[in-house]
Amino acid sequence: MDFSFSEDAEMVRATIHEFVRRDLLPREPNFLNARTREEKEQIVQTATAKIKEMGLYSAGVPEEFGGGGLGPIETCLIAEELSTTIIPVEWGDLTPILYECSAEQRPEYLLPVVAGEKRYALAFREKTHFASADDMTTFATPNAADYRLNGVKLLSRPDFDFCLVFALTPEGPSCFIVDRDTPGTEIVWGTVPAELHLNDCRIPKEKMLGQPGTALFLGQRWFGLARIIRSAAILGICSRILETTAQYARDWKSMNEPITSRQEVQNCLATMAGNIESLRWLVYYTAWCVTTKDNINFESMLLKFQAHHILQETVNTAVRVHGGPIPPIQHWLVRAAQEGEALNMLTLAVSNEVIKRYAV
């Protein structure tokens, strides 16, 4: 069996790795100490412009939607390397839900996102966790020509040109394209994540993505790969946490002895490394499955669940090594990993599939 990456894949990884180490890691102190959102945004825009110069923006988006059509392994390598920095570089990693845009919606929403000309946010989660989308408290009431949306959603990001709002219609969960500054919308900045308040927000019926009640099935054909790419990003985050924790353990002394001489710290570092290496194998095995299996839905869900489990274990172990709160860089890494997730629903889906497969 050949476990090596192709020459092209190694070239992609080396290119992104060098870019992160040369251009992004040295800018992290500026990002951390930026006093305004605008200062942080300028750093992100500069980094994104360089990704475009390298020809890697939207590299993993299928060619049929205007992307580069890069393979799953190469795309995962990009996600892993870019996630080792706290600077949230835009590289065209978009939700497969947008692939469901109609012919009329594509020129206004999908294609500009793929080209990096527009940004979107997901508005799926709410302040109260729900295991079933039917328990959402944001409603869309149909009228003759539009829908009236009411509720509060958590935004995956506060800066966007439009957002995808999930709300309950009489048919079930539905998805709406809501442009920024649409009357009846208000963004509340004082919370993390930011909140989108909808108060009798009227959205034309042609701004619905897909059909009424089908929101949970949008982009299903591509969701397996999207979960794998997200897990590769979590792998990169865990790797950076291990790197910064190992550096701290090497340099910090207690009673004139490096803390690496302590058995507990040694166990922590070994456990972190073992967990991360196992996640690395699982990520790239599952990415390989994309090209060899017709259906990777369960494999991708299990991978993403395991990725978040290992992330949490990595954070908890880092806290023990540091003897208290993790440093700012690790805090930003973890925060990025948690944005936009709906882990309750993922856990339910994995457990249901496990019952079907193994409770025989």
Polypeptide structure, described:
- Helix 6 runs antiparallel to helix 7 (263-289) and helix 6 (220-251) packs antiparallel against helix 9.
- The chain folds into three domains: 7-94, Acyl-CoA dehydrogenase/oxidase, N-terminal domain (Butyryl-Coa Dehydrogenase, subunit A, domain 1, Orthogonal Bundle); 120-209, Butyryl-CoA Dehydrogenase, subunit A, domain 2, CATH 2.40.110; 220-358, Butyryl-CoA Dehydrogenase, subunit A, domain 3, CATH 1.20.140.10.
- Strand 2 (139-142) and strand 3 form a beta hairpin.
- The strands form three sheets. The chain has a four-stranded mixed sheet, with no helix packed on it. A four-stranded antiparallel sheet has the order 2-3-7-6, with no helix packed on it. Strands 9-10 form a two-stranded antiparallel ribbon.
- It contains ten helices and ten strands.
- The chain is globular, with a radius of gyration of 21 Å.
- Helix content is 48%, strand content 15%.
- The model has no long low-confidence stretch (mean pLDDT 91).
- The chain is α+β, with helices and mostly antiparallel strands.
